[in-house]
Amino acid sequence: MKGLKTVFLLAALLLPFTVAAEPTDSFSKAKKLMMERVYFDHRETLYCGAKFDAKKDIALPTGFHTDKYIKRSKRLEWEHVVPAENFGRTFSEWRDGHPNCIDSKGKAFKGRNCASKVSIEYRYMQSDLYNLYPAIGAVNAMRSNYNFTMMPDAAAVFGTCQVKIDGKKVEPPMESRGQIARTYLYMEQRYPRYRMSKSQKQLMTVWNSQYPVTSAECKRADRIAAIQGNENRFVSEQCQN
Q1: Assessment of whether the complete model's pTM goes beyond 0.85
Q2: How far apart are the C-alpha atoms of 137 and 81, rounded to whole Å?
Q3: Structural domain tally of the chain?
Q4: Which of 6, 51, 80, 190 is the most buried (most CB within 10 A)?
Q5: Among 78, 83, 147, 84, which Cα is nearest to 119's?
């Protein structure tokens, strides 16, 4: 795996881009970077393994179905694995608003729009590339801001795509659990204001150990590091072994 990491890092550094590595505070730019510089040759969604192309057209897996958000099932969306609301609630602008958060009609607003407008720290968290993954729109919508857990008795809700949703809890497919875990652990390490619950951290620690990195995950992380200028050590340390 160490040799693979070296090859992937060199490839990322040799891409024909001369922009200095630094994080972006623009969510729209972050999505564009992911599409053009990270997923340009491995276009597959996180939860269902659906293929997509440069135009964001998705080829749904055989047997995938949904009774909700049918239109969104046909489009690619960029999922915050750690939901924006989960770290957004730590900002007073999200919870309470801000004097600068007044719309054109003079009405105060709060939540994501206010945090995005006023707090550059929030914008950096929202735009962190390590926390963004391609997802089928319907899956992104139904996952919402729910926490991940294990639900052995629950049924998959998207047919052959093994995502389980029950109440306000979600069990992701086995293939995505390691990436999810290393993303949660990274976000907590990178941003001190975000903290997982004790039970959530225990689960992510188990998944991190139980589901090791793949070559594709190492490649993804190296490309993001070349763009953003920092590592997800929970990925990079495994890639070096």
Answers
A1: yes
A2: 13
A3: 1
A4: 80
A5: 84
